[in-house]
Write a structure and sequence with these properties.
The strands form three sheets. Strands 1, 2, 4, 5, 8, 10, 11, 12 and 13 form a nine-stranded antiparallel beta sheet that branches. This protein has a five-stranded mixed beta sheet with strand order 7-15-14-16-9. The chain has one domain (9-15, 39-275). Helix 3 crosses helix 4 (128-144). Strand 10 (194-201) and strand 11 (209-216) form a beta hairpin. It has helices at residues 52-55, 89-94, 96-111, 128-144, 160-168; strands spanning 4-5, 8-12, 44-48, 61-64, 75-77, 83-88, 121-127, 177-182, 185-187, 194-201, 209-216, 219-224, 239-242, 246-251, 254-261, 270-275. It is α+β, with helices and mostly antiparallel strands. It is built from five helices and 16 strands.
Length: 292
């Protein structure tokens, strides 16, 4: 099975800020992508399609793969630039707790890999379902704002099942959910502070969305939102672990131990070995693939 990814990368670098603003894609009172749930307020809010709780932890943001770029070369942005009017204030506020969880996961993982922080063992405990829902929120934000260049001319709306998971914590079907790659050494940036998000489609027409993959601070993940058999198999020498009981990220300078609480964990806690020598931010099986 060949899948297609439309990738947005955000990397942290020590350079000055550039306040260029991305173009707005929607207008009108019905821009909230959760409007089908009802309860929308009268005012639309500016939503970070990758949460501010993560972006604010980076020294500076280099973004590549965005549709308003003329090339794939990274360009500098400030966090206030990476927003779009895609949620009303009421629905935006209802998801604020998920942003906190996403930011804490990123803090724990990146502090364990950033050579500028004192070498130590970092421990944390998070709600795994909230982390899963936060990634779903990021996916909805990327697509509703067209920040990944899917070139959709109509206004994108999440499936009702996704909205139920996102706003009402409804369960996902068996075999759907958050997976981590197990069994390989993964390259990370020299700072450990980067994020790559790639909506994944089962077809070249970008009409059958099946989830998202990418990396958070060098940790590869898959958010599976359709039949797992529609996905490409993981790279050789790796396997997928669904909803693990925890993560232990190890590098030459220390480790981060993150316990994940699930109503029912499907996988034991896993170890991820990070090669923190200088590398690019390419993570296996994340870059966009062309037609077969």
């Amino acid at each position: 099975m060949k899948t297609t990814r439309s990738t947005t990368n955000v990397d942290s670098e020590d350079i000055s800020q550039n306040d260029e603003v991305s173009p707005s894609t929607h207008s009108g009172p019905s821009r909230c992508y959760a409007r089908s749930l009802g309860g929308c307020g009268t005012r639309i809010s500016k939503e970070h399609y990758t949460s501010l709780s993560v972006l604010s932890q980076m020294d500076e943001l280099l973004v590549s793969g965005a549709p308003w770029h003329n090339s794939n070369e990274p360009r500098a942005y400030s966090p206030s630039s990476l927003v779009s009017k895609i949620l009303c204030r009421e629905h935006n506020s209802a998801l604020s707790a998920l942003d906190t969880v996403g930011g804490e996961f990123y803090r724990l993982a990146s502090n364990g890999l950033d050579p500028r922080t004192p070498s130590s063992v970092v421990h944390g405990r998070l709600d795994g379902h909230a982390l899963e829902r936060w990634l779903l929120k990021c996916l909805c934000g990327l697509l509703a704002s067209n920040a990944v260049g899917t070139c959709r001319r109509d206004r994108w709306e999440p499936p009702q099942r996704w909205l139920g998971v996102l706003f009402h914590a409804e369960p996902l079907p068996t075999s759907w959910g958050l997976y981590f790659l197990i069994g390989a050494t993964h390259p990370v940036t020299t700072t450990g502070r980067s994020i790559q998000l790639a909506p994944v489609f089962a077809d070249e027409q970008l009409s059958h969305l099946i989830g998202m993959d990418g990396q958070l601070a060098g940790i590869p993940f898959r958010l599976v939102l359709d039949d797992i058999t529609l996905w490409e198999p993981p790279p050789d020498g790796t396997e997928l672990g669904l909803r693990p009981a925890g993560l232990r990220v190890e590098s030459s300078r220390g480790q981060a131990s993150i316990q994940l609480d699930w109503e029912r964990p499907y996988s034991p806690a896993i170890s991820i070995h990070a090669d923190d020598t200088p590398h690019t931010t390419t993570i296996p099986n994340v870059k966009r693939k062309g037609p077969a």
